[in-house]
Amino acid sequence: ARVGVIVPAAGSGVRLGEDSPKAFVDLGGSTILERCVSGVVGAGIDAFVVVVVPAELVGHARELLPGVTVVPGGAHRSESVRAGLDACGDADVILVHDAARPLTPPGVFRRVLDAVLAGHEAVVPGLPVVDTLKRVDTLKRVVPGDGAEAVTETVDREPLRAVATPQGFTRDALLRAHADDGGLATDDAGLAERCGIEVAVVPGDALGFKITTPWDLRIARMLVS
Ligand code: C5P
Q1: Count of alpha carbons within 13 angstroms of residue 71, beta-carbon side
Q2: How far apart are CA 132 and CA 50, in angstroms?
Q3: Ligand 1 mutation target, pool 76, 77, 209, most atoms within 8 A of CB
Q4: Structural domains in the chain, sorted by start
Q5: Which whole-number Å values give the CA distances from 162 to 7, 15, 99, 159, 174, in the listed order?
Q6: Where are the alpha helices (DSSP H) in 94-213?
Q7: Which atom of ligand 1 is nearest to the CA of 212?
Q8: For 133-178, how does the pLDDT look when each residue is reduced to its tens digit (9 = 90+)?
Q9: Using CA positions, which residue lies closest to atom 5 of ligand 1?
Q10: Structure pTM?
């Protein structure tokens, strides 16, 4: 099968609080984006790679990643993925992998790809949730000065999975998932679910964590040092 990998890297990374957009922040001597693309290549899955970056950084990204197709993204993640999809040529299997998960080990790429090749239309890597989860709302009993919230429910975590990327799709499934505007969707599998496509979960890996906050960046820098 011809495999395409779309790497959405067009987010601003406000929650990270760095000067550059998240994918262009340094992680042990190269950018998060370069490390992520090395991870994709290092996974050994002969694939066509399309990287999606903020429009003003297309030139810079092309210099950083010679030989990789770089296209400008959109205002929402799903728009960026669609821009990548348009540049994906005739791939019959497409993996979408967030730049913000640069330490994802090769085994995760292979498990996801193998599951698509085995016949699943959509595949995500997932891990059991370790924390106890509570649903919250605003407090009825307001105590002046604190920002506390009220617990309304403890959620059963047993049937829940924390889902990461790469997310793998047949070309047809990803096109159907993105046929409508994805709006604020945080992942592609969510769009596939909405179309009634069954999404399979394979084991993820803790190293596939997403760099979102300054804390995550500290952990990632320690891991690569
Ligand atoms: O914000 P978050 O970390 O969930 O974003 C996930 C991924 O989607 C990141 O790699 C980010 O660069 C990408 N993204 C994008 N275009 C946007 C917003 C996010 O490519 N407009």
Answers
A1: 18
A2: 38
A3: 77
A4: 3-130+159-224 (3.90.550.10)
A5: 20, 20, 18, 10, 21
A6: 106-117, 171-177, 188-194
A7: 3
A8: 999 999 988 888 888 999 999 999 999 999 999 999 999 999 999 9
A9: 11
A10: 0.96
